[in-house]
Amino acid sequence: MDPNPKKFPLLSFVLTRINSIGKPKAKTDDQSDIDLEQQPTSDEVELITRMPHLNHPKLFNSMAGAIADVAKTRSILNALGSRPDHESIDFARSRIVELEASEKESELSEKCDGRKSNEMEMQGLRALLQLDDMHEAYQTLLKEAEERLVGIYGEKMETQENASMQKGKEESGDDGEVGLNQEVVKVLNDAREGKSVQEVDLSGQNLIILPEEFGRVSTLRVLNLSRNQLQMIPDSIAGLERLEELSLAKNSLYNLPDSIGLLTNLKILDVSGNKLTRLPDSISYCRSLVELNASYNDLEYLPTNMGLKLSNLQTLLIYLNKLRYLPTSICEMRSLRHLDVHFNELHGLPHNFGKLTNLEILNLSSNFSDMTELPQSFGDLINLKQLDLSNNQIHILPDSFGFLRNLVKLNLDQNPLVIPPADVVNKGANAVVEFMDNRMIEIIEKEEQDRLEKGEEEEVDDGESNTNASWLTRSTSLVSGWVSGVSDYLGTGQKSPRDPYLEEQR
């Protein structure tokens, strides 16, 4: 439950030196509750260099007293347990909906036993959601506490008349930092003077913070903050209501502000090359988004309802992350044309993945042992032109693969494929599609022949009816095969713990 020292360096520094939980007493000589002699860790060295007076007893006591709420909350959460994973929360929410529907049916049928068991399960699920809410509130508390400590340090330095020392420290900085400050000041001054600032490029300026006042440059349409050292983006960025392009690539961001969802005109967002573990749920409200690049991060999941609202998204790049599954809502991104999810930990795809009928480029490579099969709906991706499935553990392509007649580029390297065989794969995309198409026809014909041999063929009076019945039989056979495949994928009988998004469909 301890705060991340890289994300909340000052807060972590103070908490690790408080030996007792609760608000420490103000002491200057005998520090029984506070260990100021503790050797700094490698993460704290840079902090102490920037804030050399952190070990001053009076200052430290003021800071420790200001975060008593954090220490208390941390103690409570330590007792309650760690935060539930995202899959468990998604399952709990969907299960509650199912139980509520079941409860209504029980009320109509007056089945008391079922209602009691449902109530017990409901209590457990709601407790899980409450625990998650507490952890979420704790993260907000940590952020506020960090800002509080920074403010206290600044105020104390002023009262001790160290302003001159701070000024000298700033003047001793390198030319890049001075140039950076001048660039930022110039943009802000232009905005104050009423100039229409529409494009700002601050890339590669060694920028450490973005001033809150930047959110007042309301005329801005393009903002490039890539290749800096930003660790956070202020909530005031929501004031850039006309912003259409935002690049935050190659910084040190651990999260994005929830206020980013207010950028309703944003079309291109690049947050690649950071340290993000999640995207805020509010990103779903950036409904004008056409391109989103969140590659090269530490993402473990995507927002549950992300696909329901980003209906205009055409390019989604989320490769080189730690994603184990894609939310089922991604199947609603009907405008999506390019999806790159290579080098993740995907256990599979949502069974409705075929609804992405406008998809043209798909890269699912290098998910290694986790990616073992594709859903039967995969054949509905009728506009797919480029597909990379290399470096996975796929044994058999779905029978519906034969419908991908627009496929021109296919990479199946480093898979233990049995169907289609290697000699077919080596001939290229067209050969694979043709093989799978013929295989599907053969399966249909064989099933029909088996029915005839077993005497299951129905007698039909006229030729026309006989023809219709024949096609009906073939269609039924094909659909049955697909349903069977989907049932296997959903884990009928034996549940697979690696496919939480599939449990959402149950």
Automatic annotation (TrEMBL):
SMART domains: LRR_BAC, LRR_TYP. It holds the Pfam family LRR_1. Residues 455-464 have a biased composition (Acidic residues). Residues 448-472 are annotated as: Disordered. PROSITE patterns: LRR. The keyword GTP-binding does not apply. Residues 128-162 form a coiled coil. The keyword Calcium does not apply. InterPro entries: Leu-rich_rpt, Leu-rich_rpt_typical-subtyp, LRR_dom_sf, LRR_domain-containing. One of its GO terms (biological process) is intracellular signal transduction. Keywords: Coiled coil, Leucine-rich repeat, Repeat. Belongs to the SHOC2 family. Leucine-rich repeat protein that likely mediates protein interactions, possibly in the context of signal transduction. This is Putative Leucine-rich repeat-containing protein.
